[in-house]
Amino acid sequence: xxxxxxxxxxxxxxxKKKNFIQVLSWIxxxxxxxxxxxxxxxxxxxxxxxxxxxxxYSTYDAxxxxxxxxxxxxxxxxxxxxxxxQVQGIQSxxxxxxxxxxxxxxxxxxxxxxxxxxxxxxxxxxxxxxxxRGNLEVRDDKGRNSxxxxxxxxxxxxxxxxxxxxxxxxxxxxxxxxGALPSTNSVxxxxxxxxxxxxxxxxxxxxxxxxSFEAASEVLDYKNRYTALEVYFTSDANADxxxxxxxxxxxxxxxILNSDQQHSEIMNAVKVEKLFTYLALSFITLIxxxxxxxxxxMLAIEKRRDMSVLYAIGAPTKMVRQIFLKQGILxxxxxAFFGMVLGLLLCYLQDRYGLVGLGMANAVVQAYPVxxxxxxxxxxxxxxxxxxxxxxxxxxxxxxxxxxxxFLD
Length: 409
Fold this sequence. Notes:
Elements: H1 3-12, H2 20-60, E1 64-68, H3 78-86, E2 90-105, E3 108-117, H4 119-123, E4 131-134, E5 146-150, H5 151-157, E6 168-173, E7 187-198, H6 202-205, E8 208-212, H7 213-220, E9 228-233, H8 239-250, E10 254-257, H9 259-262, H10 264-288, H11 290-302, H12 304-312, H13 317-353, H14 374-400, H15 404-407
Parallel strand pairs: 3-8, 5-7
Antiparallel strand pairs: 1-9, 1-10, 2-3, 2-6, 2-9, 4-7, 5-8, 6-7
Domain MacB-like periplasmic core: 25-156
Subcellular location: Cell membrane
Transmembrane segments: 20-46, 275-301, 328-351, 371-393
């Protein structure tokens, strides 16, 4: 242990009665501990929310989704589709048509998110875990088009799966000539048989309607075009190799999206909120650590005679600065250590026992999800280090400018 470290430690562990500077140091440690704990817990909650979203969407989403970079719809050649099916690791694919339409069931109507899929989508069993009632089919054995409804839309339309007495009428406006008046012939209509109710998530439940690719193509007049091509993997697939192979097949006019990219808006929103929360809590921790600045400044004033003695026996200015820098580092390190331990402990208890619930009956998870990412822990440690240097440097500089002649009797 060198001299500056020894002196800094002695100043920190002094046991003088009614030493206000030491009390201020303990308050500084407490502030740093609370700020560090808050950073660990909040960042872990955002990580947990991201994982929950990925879990929900990855269960329903395709492994890869091919969409055009320009325009709304496209069509690949039969040769390209055949090459895609032959790529190692690809189990199947499905052409997808997505658009908004109006669904009418008896005297109820709603704007729905229409999603036309092929039988290969149903065969992936992605909807099995979300099924509430009915049979997962987009066409029955008689060739009739069927509809799979989100739970919210199912109740809004008052659909009756069990009886099959009433069909859903799907309508979509035709492209009218300029100046033409709308009429009963200005919309395309397709009838669907309610087949199943699924409960995926709150957003999709309110508007999702799945039907056959043929029915969606007919009502939207897409013919052989589609808005996306979804690709489904085998269990041992290599995503990077498959992406490289698909890029070679479809070319550079298409984007190949993984699950996160398919929901880039909400995933980016979580990342942005996490960033701003981190910055806000770091700033609060910086404000709390100003107590380190005040305690070191007061210590520098109180210990001017000690510094004069050190200068008198030949101590360099650098060593005096190091004493107060190390004092600040010691205060921040102890506070950050206990803050990290408490933060990690709270995350563990929340993950294991669900101490704090979401308070939502229909939530995917009942308690706030948490996930500890060690890069976040390292980032918090770096932040505390920088804050300590910022708040300790000025008092250390002040102490190093003591005039030894003035304070020596």
